[in-house]
Protein: Sulfotransferase domain-containing protein
Organism: Hansschlegelia zhihuaiae
Amino acid sequence: MPGISPHWPEKTRELHNHHFDSTVWNDFRFRDDDVVIATYAKSGTTWVQQIVAQLIFQGVEDLPVAEMSPWLDLRVPPKAEKLPAVEAQAHRRFLKTHLPVDALVYSPKAKYLYIGRDGRDVVWSMHNHHVNANELWYRALNDTPGRVGPPIGPPPADVRRYFLEWLQGDGHPFWPFWENIRSWWAMRELPNLLLLHFNELKADLPGQVRCIAAFLDIPVEPGRWDAILEHCGFAYMKRHASKSVPLGGAFWDGGAQTFVHQGTNGRWRDILTAEDCRRYEETARHELGEACAHWLATGERSDQDRR
């Protein structure tokens, strides 16, 4: 309601595993115009990083987005190396996180973009990411100092088995899925958070880019829109994948082209059984409630759930 100050989220815990070191946020110094791009993972993170980069730099060609927009809570490189590098950035900063809200420091100064995607599509994209990871990827996550908990191992080749293990283990072998979605959905009315959805980006990219520009208070010169939209399209990102992917894709067999894979939904439809889908959908409703589960599956929200 007008005149009532928002209740800002507070950090209540740390998350550590083969990927995470959430303590990095404790020492991060926010600026008034910071942008934080948040997802569970494999939900359109790289796509939205590209969009934000194109808006900030007004359609410039060949931006090194992966270098400019680090995954802050990834534990490699360590925070003693990462934080000074981010502090030294002179451009408007746009950072990436895969943490739930209560494991990061949420700042009223920053603008937050959260992207949702149906968990079945997430897993299909994640399986491609995981099954093509090479020895360098495993060494970076498992053998560098600071890992907490068990190492991550190779995935089963069968994607249905991978999905069922992920569903049964709530995000196994990565990190919990439902709490991530739930935590950001609960904050959807905050004035500095914009919920996005992979389906909406697919259906109306120009409209979504304009919405993001307005939310981030980025004026765009009329003559720059064509370049911005071209550079935010999947075909352009696939051609220039080495600029969007960490270390230019060195962690994956096939390089950056493997990381920026197909950008499609529904590949699970011919593989999962009706019972598999029923289990997933029942779990989604139980974990998220009807409104959030519907949004996650479709991108659709009722009027009362919109900002």
Q: What stands out?
A: The radius of gyration is 19 Å. The longest helix spans residues 274-288. The mean pLDDT is 92. The domain at 22-305 is CATH 3.40.50.300 (Rossmann fold).
